[in-house]
Design brief:
Shape of chain B: globular
Shape of chain A: globular
Helix content of chain A: over 70%
Largest interface: A-B, 48 and 46 residues
Order of helices and strands of chain A: EHHHHHHHHHHHHHHHE
Helix content of chain B: over 70%
Number of helices of chain B: 12
Oligomer: heterodimer
Largest sheet of chain B: 2 strands, antiparallel
Distance between the termini of chain A: 13 Å
Strand order of the largest sheet of chain A: 1-2
Largest sheet of chain A: 2 strands, antiparallel
CATH class of chain B: Mainly Alpha
Number of domains of chain A: 1
Strand order of the largest sheet of chain B: 1-2
Chain lengths: 361, 305
Amino acid sequence: MIRLERRPAPSKNWTYLAPLLAVATTMAVGAIMFALLGKDPFLAIKTIFWDPIFSPQFGSYSRPQLLVKAGPLILIAIGLSLGFRAGIWNIGAEGQYIMGALAGAAVALAVYPMELPVLLPLMVIAGALGGWAWAMIPGFLRTMFNTNEILVSLLLVYVAEQILAAASVGFLRNPEGGGFPGSRNLQSYPSAHNAEIIANSGIHWGVVAALISVIAAYVLLQRHILGFHIKLAGEAPRAAKLAGVNPARLILFCMGVSGALAGMAGLFEVAGPAGKVSIDFGAGYGFTAIIVAFLGRLHPVGILLAGLLMALTYIGGELAQLMLSLPAAAIQAFQGMLLFFLLAFDVFSHYRLRLAPGRAA
Amino acid sequence: MDISLINLVPLLMAASTPILLAGLGELVVEKSGVLNLGVEGMMIVGAITGFMAAVATGSPTLGFLGGALGGAAMALIFGLLTQGLMSNQVATGLALTLFGLGLSALLGQGFVGLKPPATPKLPVPGLSELPVIGPMLFRHDLMVYLSLAAVAAVWAFLRYSRPGLILRAVGENHAAAHALGYKVTRIRIYAILFGGAMAGLGGAYLSLVRVPQWTEGMTAGAGWIALALVVFAAWRPVPLLVGAYLFGGITVLQLNMQAAGVNVPVELLSMSPYVVTILVLVAMSAAGAAAGAPGSLGRAFHASR
């Protein structure tokens, strides 16, 4: 009989191996799914994972898109990973992303059409504050009343979506838009536009912020006492308590940072690639970032790589939609599957298989 | 539209049925010590598999069966991962929701805009002719009665039956239950499957009766509200019924107010069920409801011997 035996310490090798195996298995099972949908499985996998980067026909468009999509995913996932490590579950990043975008865009639209050199930095601060404030609701309720932060943060996503709808048909609507929903386009407002820093590279300030957040999170977790407390609270809650870690402070810190980063991601998106506040602004980055955080093993460098990979599936998925008329939903299912396989393979980080004689009944 | 009690109560009962079914399933799951955050995913998959089965066979009953099976199939993935491979329950539940939203959209490709076969109303003979009460309470479809019967059944099962006692023991203290010789993992898998089937039924009720048609992401947070209901009810079936009808009432009221063109922003009305859910969660947790949670809730169990 085969049974699982708990390892004394998590296996280092399996920590690295599990995500790779998960990606490989997802590709294999995904290929079967695509075949069932009547598509050539090899062509579909190639279109999703290879063509966006290496195709001479699409590469020049897709490669910058990779960074455009990876930027917000990484920025949000870095924030979420701090909380997840400490056992604090902010799953409402999508709502914080929306609120950040609204707060930041509101600042720009309030002073329109004045040209101010400090406008974009001000918008970034407003965006971070918007996301921070939205995340503080579940954080504060958790510390004050011990209310479950998972449910509150998630439910607030639906509230944020309604505020977004109200903003795009109401208080942020473009007065010169002929009554159509949606705000003014920030791309045509130079002071507010989060433009590409290097033309056709896809690198805008959000991508830079994502890279900075990776480094900052790395330093925090490796070198700072707060990072140590985060890891301690997650891995050994009793030890953390005895070491005098203040749980309320930790909750507010993790929720606040993840909210602020998600809010910034929203602002960079609304002022850059998206351009304006519209009803369909929320693109699900806040939820996909959860997959990115886990796939990256809640480690900053891992998240950087996982974010790029997930961005690739987004762009490859769009390409497959265009070239093979693969349904958009297939990619969503594909991404969900990836997380399943990762969680499944993770068992080997904590347990090993043992061939053991069957127990007497 | 006329906002009167005789009109509102039947609508309220129909609007509450999906979250009542899903919440009841999750209650049993959590009583066994497992936290499945994938209710939303199981519901939406149940909504589409139920819809597909009903359209293919022309029978709403087979549709509901299909919904229950779809939800249970999703729950099986969760059960294998969390019970067999000891994966983190929070992460696995989230994965179930994300996967379910994608899978349902994929399955539902050819079903957008179709009309499902109508689910017949089953007036209770005699009682449905009563003035006022008759039209309010006794002219519903099968699933509404079934959901009420399920509340009574779960209540009785947990309170009076031996398997119910064992299930609660497993949820309160899995190590002790294991030491007594109960199959912790197996019992939890059964509970998880039941929870999935109930969530699937709730989803199918949405796509077959409430709406009735298939649209992507149509559960719109109903699964999360069902999860909140379990906390609200402090893990007890009868308060769960009260809570479900309360939220159903708010949903119906705000929809009617939207239709009646009340001078309140539509967005404010649309967000009200979520805001009220949050407020109730806060009130319950401030009152110390978390103390009623099963002792082993959300903790992985691995028998070393």
